Amino acid sequence: MTATPAVWPAPNPTLYGTKHSASSGHYLASSAAFALLEAGANAVDAGCAAGIALAVLHADEVNFAGVAPIMIRMAGGDTISIDGLGVWPRRIPADLFLREHDGQIPSGLLRTVTPAAPDAWITAVRDFGTVGFAEIARPALRLARDGFAVHPLLADGIDKRQAGYRNWAANEAIYLPGGRPPRVGERFVQTDLAHTIQLMIDAEAAELAAGGDRIAGLEAARAVFYEGEIAARIVEYHEENGGYLRADDLAGFRSRYEDVVAPRWRDFTIYTCGAWCQGPILAEALLILEKVGIGGLEHNSPEYVHTVIEALKAVFADREHHYGDPASVDVPLERLLGAEHIAQRAAAIDPDRAADGLPPALFGDSQELPRAISAEEVRHIGEGGTSYVCVVDQWGNAFSATPSDGASTSPVIPGTGFVPSLRGLQSRPDPAHPSGVAPGKRPRLTPNPAIAVRDDGSVLPFGCPGGDMQVQAMLQVFLNAFHFDMDLQEAVNAPRFSTWSFPNSFAPFDYLAAHVFLEDRFDEDVYAELERRGHDVRRWPAFTRDAAAVEAIYRNARTGFLESAADPRQPAQAVVA
Length: 577
Prior knowledge:
Blueprint: E1 15-17, E2 21-24, H1 27-38, H2 43-57, E3 70-73, E4 79-82, H3 96-100, H4 117-128, H5 133-146, E5 148-149, H6 152-160, H7 162-165, H8 169-175, E6 187-188, H9 191-209, H10 214-226, H11 229-241, H12 247-251, E7 257-258, E8 264-265, E9 268-271, H13 280-292, H14 302-322, H15 333-336, H16 339-347, E10 389-392, E11 398-401, E12 450-454, E13 459-463, H17 470-482, H18 488-493, E14 497-499, E15 515-519, H19 524-532, E16 536-540, E17 551-555, E18 562-565, E19 573-576
Parallel strand pairs: 15-16
Antiparallel strand pairs: 1-18, 2-10, 2-19, 3-4, 3-11, 4-7, 5-6, 8-9, 9-12, 10-11, 12-13, 13-17, 14-15, 17-18
Helix pairs in contact: 1-2, 2-4, 2-5, 4-10, 5-9, 9-10, 13-14, 13-16, 13-17
């Protein structure tokens, strides 16, 4: 019998509706999605509008020209993923960072991969939406052109990263107007980004005026970015400043449709993206915990936290030793999710003692790990953050997307208002590593939107920002809701914990062996007992965004309601009708 968890008071209640719902990392992005839903557009249209708006509203963490992995489940049952992830330029030497940069991926243009987000949004709307580019881009255009009130998360993020913005005049002009970080409540304007978006809208309008259809209009908007005036600005800057991105890299780029991973957990199918991102380790963690057995464990008890942390170490080990771009390396995903491997990982968990660092590979080669450091030695604030949006419409279509990329460790292209994707910082400098650098290869991505589908027809799109915390937070919220039977908002709001006993996904890949962080809302005996079991326990402030910020919508087939939750750890908002 599963123990009854404590009920955590939610700053916002679960919202219930019967028609459609949107939830995202900012209330204005959710409003943009909701307006389209109310106008008769579908979940894909609405989700893309919110995603583009988040590139304005969370401008320090989501870049207009960054990454945008997307998962879509249509009401008829088809579930697809669009990687929304760029590749290394064709001319970059695979050994560049080992040979010339002492095994580091430096800040600046050299970490640039092809910008993917504009293509990903357009691809999704072209193939599964109903509207044109102008409809999904106008909310972002207005927010960039007219500005919006700086929220605490944005103010704090820019303040922490201001040293990076000061490295390039174009970055400083946007993020440090007047030479300082913007303050909460001030108007934040992005004029150059508004001009970029307007160019794409105008190209679509010209195509439609010439007699083109909706698809032609979307392709015209895309062409301005990847082959026209915007592309020319990107290439010129790279050519003049030692970058590798060229016209053929941009013109030849298209986001890829990728098979979803779909293992079973109880009466759910858990849909994740493939091993080009970290998505499959969410499913693997659920399978390991099911094999171990957590039915008698009290929610957030020392025994439960320890067991989940040890399962997470196991799946992070498999990510480290095996994951990379499946188009370039052989990722044995079927074996990693197979019953034999799951049983071996489960059997290796000591119920009374923490594993000493990251476990080795159970087959194949174990990757060499960096020197373990303490939390006090973490070397710099990277480009973490990200945001998230999910939508369910009146027809039962579901949309899940995790747009990302910052702007403090690579230059804004002057006149455009954006940084071409700097996601190369998630590749390993050694090309021999499964996620190592190579021309045309994708970095191993942390953003990983997911959708869970219950046998009764219920659907749950869910996800969050947070880098290596994403899967950890998604796992805990999912178990809170569907193992401990919490209300959805309570599941989102409950205290979280994490392990960092693996090489971080972001350069310089810090490895904090045995480190565990818990929000400062656990019973005191939990911290002490985890220490006794060998964990190096640290405390996070209550409701810190370091614990990630999960958004979720549950279309409950049993009740007919849409249940929507927004995480209080960021300026998120769920809206329903």
